[in-house]
Amino acid sequence: MSLPKEFKYSDEHEWVKDEGERVRIGITDFAQSELGDIVFVELPEVGDEVEANEPFGSVESVKTVSELYAPLSGKVVEVNEDLEDSPEFVNESPYEKAWMIVVEPSDPSEQDKLMTADQYEEMISEE
Q1: DSSP codes, 82-111
Q2: Mind listing the pLDDT tens digit for each residue in 54-88?
Q3: Secondary structure class of 7 (helix, strand, coil)
Q4: How far apart are the C-alpha atoms of 68 and 55, rounded to whole Å?
């Protein structure tokens, strides 16, 4: 399992890709492998506010439904509509095709609280 080194990670298994004024968010390869085959993804609407460590949507797999937790606070400016018709992207391509939302962070310093790829890798190796 390879983790993009330039991303940041939350302890709820979300990844964050810094894109300057915005961040792109999705779930990690580890998370999707634990969940199994994803059959449905529920995401917020463009314009919604998300709050750090609060649920912003959910993923449903053949095994369970899991909440998605926002790794940081801000306004949703883009939603990956492709996941509505192709939830399997989460399993096939968690870091490319299966990004979930793009957020304009209200407090960019919240990113400093997230883990590096090495720290995240260490956390999941203990699970």
Answers
A1: HHHH-TTHHHH-TTTTT--EEEEES-GGGG
A2: 999 999 999 899 999 999 999 999 999 999 999 99
A3: coil
A4: 5
Give me 23's structure tokens.
């961040």
Please check whether residue 90 is in contact with residue 83, taking contact to mean a CB–CB distance below 8 angstroms.
Answer: yes
48 token code pair:
């919604």
Q: How far apart are CA 105 and CA 22, in angstroms?
A: 7
Q: Render pLDDT for 25-47 as a digit per residue (tens, 0 to 9).
A: 999 999 999 999 999 999 999 99
The amino acid present at 51, given as its one-letter code, is E
Q: Is the pTM of this model over 0.90?
A: yes
CA–CA separation, 15 and 7 (whole Å): 6
105 strand-pairing partners: 74
Query: Could you tell me the strand order of the sheet in which 8-9 lies?
Result: 8-9, 14-18, 23-27, 101-105, 74-79, 49-50
Torsion of Cα atoms, 58 then 101 then 55 then 36, to 10°: 30
